[in-house]
């Protein structure tokens, strides 16, 4: 499920396209679907992913989604989630924020940070979540999907 697309011009007068991109399905209701921003530019007549250029802005308080994630992903909320809260009910907002932030880190090619976020998932369901998360990104980010499989190979 794709949603909002915004067009803007950068300081050099070149077009920048912000595309809100849905994350992995199955861990939240559709209303709380995880998502992250991809940023595209037109280069040599083709759309190219320029997200890493904008990650400083995306992970700053200037960006509304980041501010919301910081409000939701408090140590208290993460502790509640990790200690048996599960993915339903009150924790859905936490699940969505955590998966959204991890997804944004992947789009920014910050794979270690994404893995750190995913490791905050309760241990009981972590391997299933990581398999699903990796499968949803395997085609576009094969190096990250491989990184998710590395711990499984060691066991």
Quickly list its features.
alpha+beta, single chain, four-stranded antiparallel β-sheet
Strand content: 15-25%
Determine the number of helices (DSSP H or I, runs of at least 4 residues).
Answer: 7
Global Rg: 16 Å
Sum up the overall morphology in one term: globular
Mean pLDDT across residues: 85
Walk me through this protein's architecture:
This protein is α+β, with helices and mostly antiparallel strands. The protein has one domain (2-154). It has seven helices and four strands. The chain has helices at residues 55-58, 64-72, 75-85, 92-107, 111-118, 123-137, 142-154; strands spanning 2-9, 15-22, 35-43, 46-49. Strands 1-2-3-4 form a four-stranded antiparallel sheet. The longest helix has 16 residues, at 92-107.
What's the gist of this structure?
This protein is of the alpha+beta class and 155 residues long.
Helices and strands in order:
Layout: E1 2-9, E2 15-22, E3 35-43, E4 46-49, H1 55-58, H2 64-72, H3 75-85, H4 92-107, H5 111-118, H6 123-137, H7 142-154
Helix pairs in contact: 2-4, 4-5, 6-7
């Amino acid at each position: 499920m794709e949603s909002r697309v915004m067009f803007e011009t950068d300081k050099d007068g070149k077009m920048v396209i912000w595309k809100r991109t849905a994350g992995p399905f199955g861990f939240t209701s559709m209303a709380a679907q995880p998502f992250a921003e991809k940023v595209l530019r037109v280069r040599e007549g083709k759309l190219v992913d320029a997200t890493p250029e904008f990650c400083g802005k995306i992970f700053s308080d200037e960006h509304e989604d980041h501010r919301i994630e910081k409000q939701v992903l408090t140590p208290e909320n993460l502790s509640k989630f990790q200690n048996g809260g599960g993915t339903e009910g009150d924790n859905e907002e936490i699940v969505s924020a955590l998966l959204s932030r991890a997804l944004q880190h992947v789009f920014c090619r910050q794979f270690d940070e994404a893995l750190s976020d995913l490791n905050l998932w309760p241990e009981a369901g972590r391997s299933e979540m990581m398999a699903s998360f990796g499968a949803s990104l395997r085609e576009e980010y094969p190096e990250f999907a491989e990184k998710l499989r590395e711990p499984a190979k060691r066991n």
